[in-house]
Amino acid sequence: PTPSTLDLDNIQGDVLSGLPKKTQTYFFFQITDVKLFRSQLTQFVPLVKTTAQVLKDRKTIEDHKKKGDKTLIPMSSVNIAFSHKGFAQMGVDDSTLDDTDFQNGQRADAFNLRDNGTGGQNDFVPDWDPAFMQDIHALIFVSGDSHKSVNKKMQQVKDIFGVGSTKTSIKEVKTIVGDVRPGKEAGHEHFGFLDGISNPSVIGFDKNPQPGPKQIQSGALILGHEGDPNLSSRAPWVVDGSFLAFRYLFQNVLEFDNFLRDNPVPLAGLTPEEGSELLGARLVGRWKSGTPIDLAPFKDDPEISKNPHENNDFRFTAEGQFQKICPFAAHVRKTNPRADLEDPPISASLQKRRITRRGVQFGPEVTKEERKAGKTIEGRGLLFACYQTSIEDGFAFLQKSWANEPTFPPGAAPKIPGLDPLIGQGDRKLIGTDPNNPDVELPMPEFVVSRGGEYFFSPSLKGLRETIAM
Ligand code: HEM
User: Fold this and answer.
1) Global pTM?
2) Ligand 1 centroid vs 312 CA: distance in angstroms?
3) Catalytic residues
4) Among 185, 193, 195, residue to substitute to test ligand 1 (most atoms within 8 Å of Cβ)
5) Residue extents of the structural domains in the chain
6) Which of 200, 235, 243, 261 could serve as 96's disulfide partner, Cβ 3.0–4.6 Å?
7) Mean pLDDT, 10 residues at a time, over the chain (470 residues)?
């Protein structure tokens, strides 16, 4: 294909469209018998769902819904991604991926990401789930409508690689099951905020872009396309692939709620409950309904969130360079600063900062026991996953140089916005939560705790078939 056309049969389904899911199982593993694995991979590749197939699945789901049928269609989808250690183990030359963070792996990046742990730059030991302290070579994930469909497909995958038999080529490191939250919380992350609203719209793929941030070139997401900063040097097999950053993020929901309760925004006319709700909205930049506070500053208007023509159409310009309406450090302002940096147009230097998020929740709903104790007892959070053409320019940059960086966005100077209140790691405080006293600093406990992750590359179908499988 020419660099501007997208071969939807060659790009894995999760990258551009997101695998349809009510539940998703992540299976992290090591490759123990390279020769056997690469030959078994030939049988596995036909199971990998492509973007074209996902679009078909989505149409099937839409048609089914239109008929008024509320049942879910049994469905499952498989994708695969490899770490640099995985490519090294197989002897696959991944040098044209050319990304230092990917090359070193996430464990080596944990210090710079400011994850919890002990030691300094050179002897850092992150406080991670032991599984992620081991080498992870690859990740297979299966999404679907139900545990039944996903488990069935997962079994089929395991059978191909001989898991449980003497002829296996892989060793499981960890399995994590993620589930969309139940009932009306579906689509909301564990703090209660609607998620998955703002992802970059891609030229040549999204034919009906909604009002919002300018579309990005496909090369800002898919390797080997217009807008890929390393376009000329990519080996053919990496074209149509994308980097996948995975993070195992635990959320302290009770502690988050306590913090909101204890620090209501003292705005005239608001009850303490409304003040707490407003604080939550100001930390995220959106109300729990998903409505951006830039459009509904002091009172939620849930209708905005339901309207795709409106719910992403804001640029933090309503108030110029102030934070009466939205704190500079609010999660969505830190991770996509829109007009705070440049808008329009989005230049090459900025579109490489856009990431496409595909996460899912894990862990149970808050229990009665936890409510009573007022603290987190069960593990729950977000299986964060995002795609980009470079880990260094994408996820890692957003986490290190934006979320963790108190002086970002720079337009706030001489004010210091502080850390992203959800994911910022370091000296956790921010300003701008009180619209009438925007310089007042608010220290925050940790709401999101990273317990591991890895950087992966999601190859094209051709890459899988012709270069990785043997
Ligand atoms: C948007 C929650 C982790 C980057 C959002 C939104 C919510 C949210 C509620 C608004 C909904 C939307 O626009 O789709 C969370 C939670 C996290 C988390 C609870 C951790 C448990 C991360 C991480 C990153 C990130 C680790 C990257 C370093 C983004 C981006 C957006 C976003 C880029 C879209 C901003 C925009 O375009 O307006 N997140 N997030 N998030 N988040 Fe997160």
Assistant:
1) 0.97
2) 13
3) 195
4) 195
5) 13-248+454-468, 253-350+403-449
6) 235
7) 76 97 98 98 98 97 91 95 98 98 98 98 97 98 98 98 96 98 97 97 94 93 95 97 98 98 96 98 98 97 97 88 92 95 68 95 98 98 98 98 97 94 98 95 98 98 98
